[in-house]
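#dry-run=false #mode=assembly
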Amino acid sequence: MKKLVPAALAVLLAAGCATGNAPASSKAADKAADTAEISFSFWGTNSEAASLKAIAAAFEKANPGAKVTTNWIQSDYEQKLQTSIAAGTQSTVMEISNTSLAGFAPSFAEQTVDPSAYVQPNISAALQFQGKYYAMPFAAKPKVMAINTDAFKAAGVPLPSATTPLSLDEFRTIAAKLSHGEGKARVYGSSNLWYRGWLTAAGGGYYNADATECTFGDETGVKTAQYVVDMQKNRYAPTSTDIQGQDQAQWFAAGRLATFSDFGPWTVADFAKISKPNWTLVPVPGKGFPMEVDGLGIAKTASGKQLETAKKFVEFASTQQVAQDQLIQGNTALGVPIIAASAPTLEKVLPAERNLAAFTGALKTGEVGVSVAKEAQLSGDAEKGMTSYTALGTGKDDVAKVLPQLASKCTQALTK
Amino acid sequence: MNPTVGWIRDLAASWGVPAALVPLVPFLLLLIVLYAVIGLAAYGARRRWPRADRTIAFWLFVSPWLIGFALFTVGPMASSVYVSLTSWDLITPPKFVGLANYTEALQDPRVGQALKVTLLYALISVPLQTALAFLVALLLNSDVPGMRVFRTVWYLPSLVSGVAQMVLFLWVFNPQYGLMNDVLARFGIQGPGWFNDASWALPTVILMSLWTVGGAMVIYLAGLKDVPPNLYEAAALDGAGPVRQFWHVTLPQMSPIILFNALTGIIGSLQIFTQGFIANGGPKDSLLFFVYYLYDNAFQNFRMGYASALAWILFAVILALTAVTLRGSAFAVYYETELNRSKRRRG
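#status=ok
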């Protein structure tokens, strides 16, 4: 009897200690593999979820017998995805962005992607890691810039081209002319400047092409940081403190911002409500902001008929017009369709004078950054350092001194 | 997934158990095995010690809690000891690294910063909260009309805590549009940056912590009601004024309650998380609380092994501080029961 209690405790501890991500037992996996039923995890707002559910429904309609169970993860998507992978309970198909792909690639099956199916080669290349495709693209999220045309007219500033981007210097000159007023009535020529975006616009990047070095501390990085700091110092753009707890789209609607540069496809719905002041879209200055590409990864553990169905589903979402058109729901957009046949769908959401065609232009020229495995940690630490110590945030230190130090730390962590 | 659990699930599935119930089968089976073991143990004990009925019944009745504790507290804790000795990103299998995570923690300057911020917060906020809650309880213990309204008003803020409290105070302390700087501006004072200023962020959180003293205040108030009035009468007869009565009657009588509130306050303040999380660690890591840093490593950087090692380091710190506080309290806390016990011993 004395031996029974320790034995029971040992069982308990063994149950508690059971960790690891060994695949589910063979019979259970085999049974699942025999069916055409797949599960699909994704993140997003109500309208984004509606798009993805509509794609799943369209797939079921086009493939009788196939079933897609959707799993809408409304918050902390990557954390939940990672814990489900550790527990062996991940979905068959998982949405993933190009920036996070490197961290998840070991748990995704390799895929075959045809780059010629998309409007430009960057789109498929964004979902490559170490030369292999681990996800198939289905939506791109290029950025454009909204301009308050009334403010331009009032200041006597000619409207920027609808297709050719301004240079960074031209943008600064325009922002200066459009800025006026004091206190809470101050009108800024530009919205708050997102350093990483403007770094790409200036031709720089956070990492070098082969993701072996953090490059935001180089000459372009420092020059761009100084550009952002000067814009804020001259009060052509609000600081992070100015916009704390504020909605910049509302500022734009109230006429307090003459330009709004962080305009993604999901912003269309908010701006569609703004009739006064008049506005239109133009390309982001310079080389534009980094473009996010979202793809669909297939769990490495999927096999048999389930794997076959998963492959069909991701290809359907990625390349079929009936699926790509679903990215637009009413006047909201999860992203810009990536196949030529669906590209004009977004342009038709609002009248032509709003120039939603700027998204199509940005899609064709969009810069896609490299994916690194520790992206959240590296960019989180770097941005925290920048905003703590320099005027990119609430600090006062010289960007020329701080950025190279942060980049050096970042490179050490990248290569560790 | 554990292979044994997987095998049991397979077996259940092959026996036609509905798919939704399959994950429950291994757990139910474990419970059945455990109760079989417990039943056997009880039967054996009953035969060996026929008079131990009450003891056996006691263990049988507490067994559900004990099993829950073992499965959901001791089990994960034991598991985290193992995880702390590995390098694990949740995606690839864990790699055993021995004590490397603990060694890294000892050399990590951010661990030092996290400990500094957390201990500083505990060191300042706990005495402040204790003093304020006790002072308010003394005031609210007076026999004045409408006192119940005041007690309710003082307790109400405690109901707004956690994320809601932090979001509220982010607005109050917003340097541009916040209530605090607006009020200060009316007196010609230029308010600081509060959460945006590295030197002000921690004092702001400490100030914020005083918002929720209502909970401790209620406990003090209950304690004050329990102080025997005859002690005050005796002290008054001996010529003690209000200050001496407070010093020689109220404080000794309340000392066990002060100790309880201080201990729970210390443990709670060392586990502070929400404020650091919402403020993203604050400028220059000024709000890098230890649990937030642990969370950051686990769920932002996906370093489960390192985060588990940090959890055990925090456990050791809390254990040590609690032991020191309890040991130190022996000289300052008065227990009536101990006095009665020593009287009985002398008698």
